[in-house]
Amino acid sequence: xxxxxxxxxxxxxxxxxxxxxxxxxxxxxxxxxxxxxxxxxxxxxxxxxxxxxxxxxxxxxxxxxxxxxxxxxxxxxxxxxxxxxxxxxxxxxxxxxxxxxxxxxxxxxxxxxxxxxxxxxxxxxxxxxxxxxxxxxxxxxxxxxxxxxxxxxxxxxxxxxxxxxxxxxxxxxxxxxxxxxxxxxxxxxxxxxxxxxxxxxxxxxxxxxxxxxxxxxxxxxxxxxxxxxxxxxxxxxxxxxxxxxxxxxxxxxxxxxxxxxxxxxxxxxxxxxxxxxxxxxxxxxxxxxxxxxxxxxxxxxxxxxxxxxxxxxxxxxxxxxxxxxxxxxxxxxxxxxxxxxxxxxxxxxxxxxxxxxxxxxxxxxxxxxxxxxxxxxxxxxxxxxxxxxxxxxxxxxxxxxxxxxxxxxxxxxxxxxxxxxxxxxxxxxxxxxxxxxxxxxxxxxxxxxxxxxxxxxxxxxxxxxxxxxxxxxxxxxxxxxxxxxxxxxxxxxxxxxxxxxxxxxxxxxxxxxxxxxxxxxxxxxxxxxxxxxxxxxxxxxxxxxxxxxxxxxxxxxxxxxxxxxxxxxxxx
Length: 572
Ligand code: PEP
Ligand code: MG
Description:
Glucose Oxidase, domain 1; TIM Barrel; 16 strands; binds phosphoenolpyruvate; binds magnesium ion; Phosphoenolpyruvate-protein phosphotransferase; pyruvate; sugar transport; PEP-util_enz_mobile_dom; phosphotransferase system
């Protein structure tokens, strides 16, 4: 029997495929005293053998699908599972202390991990990562739970998950993952943002998909209207295939504007840029007629792996993006880790309020090795295109000054060592903390540009967690409070002859676009798939006419009033 689940439309498009449940099982281990030591050791050995069999299968598949390079990691894992130096101490612990296999495994593995990580040696850090991965696999067998591996999916599927971490999302293989749907999350959670840049249809915040959908069931994800249809009848399937075709036709219509500049009906040019998470996303930017990259979220380079990316790896990624963009502007944001973007290998303590905690520039100013490595990679890549650098989560001028001083120090060192560095890198900040928006007139004297990060600016202004669907009604981009802040930032920039862009999701929102145009925003950076619809919309609007209503809009008192006015005057 077909059924429909409602959620939040997070990434446009229609996907139809069989379901694949992505599970993150609880691997918490408790210490237990056991009476039959031999049986416990046997149970441990069985779990090792099951893990080996499983790894052999994964390794062979990885070899075929991803190549030898990627498969090598699984050979390393297999070696760990045959290493007596790891296995014997675990068995000894089971017999000498009469403890359960799970506990003995975790204790011994943790001891090796801590020891290897403390050696400050890349090779040993990799071994620690191997042991961590392998331990999880064996633990899952001992506990009788399943771990799913999204990177190994090899047929067309729709992912069903409670939540997808950004790192899960980064590992999804676009060839096979046709769509996804989650219980939790909102339009601005990072898995939703990534789905849009990967052009994978998605519906999030459904509250119900994991409790309703089993593995292998036919599912439709309607990312246009936010619906998930489970086990559709032939009739419903036909209906959605038609809707999919219509959407494709609409996309073809938009595509006609691909090579055009974005000019309003009264002849004003605004820049339509794209947000990306990985170098692979550049393809979609160019296909969708992006005039620039307004936000490269570099943190995804640090995710879905076990250790920090090296300077060389980063240099390659930045250079690739700059070269592919062929001289068009590329705004790279320095590492913005924290909030919902975790890096387990940094072993940072859990915080009560991660969105208000030790994150982004705060972390980079403290962990300067990490920051300086990234800045060097960026500076070295700067000669391959039109690079602009911006710092995330700036709350005070002092943070900006410190970050800029470190950047300048690294630049001087590179230049002194004979490395070419571009002389025209603009340095800007994200405006996503209300204190910075309010003080924009002061910041504007020192920065080259602003990029307004409304995803965070709205969550901090409204004090409403962007990940929490119960307070998602407070995500109100058209609230006059937000519009006034945005207007202040744009005016402050212009007063100092600087430009102001926006890279939060609001920049691609059809109701917000006319308002932002009237407020004088210079650059709109959005998911690549929103660019052509936005260009179509902007070409019909007169910037001067909307600007003449600026004071009227800013003096409205509610979101509803703003929406009503925009709909009545600037939508169709
Ligand atoms: C924002 O906060 O608006 C933004 C663009 O950054 P992120 O979504 O990565 O926090
Ligand atoms: Mg942000």
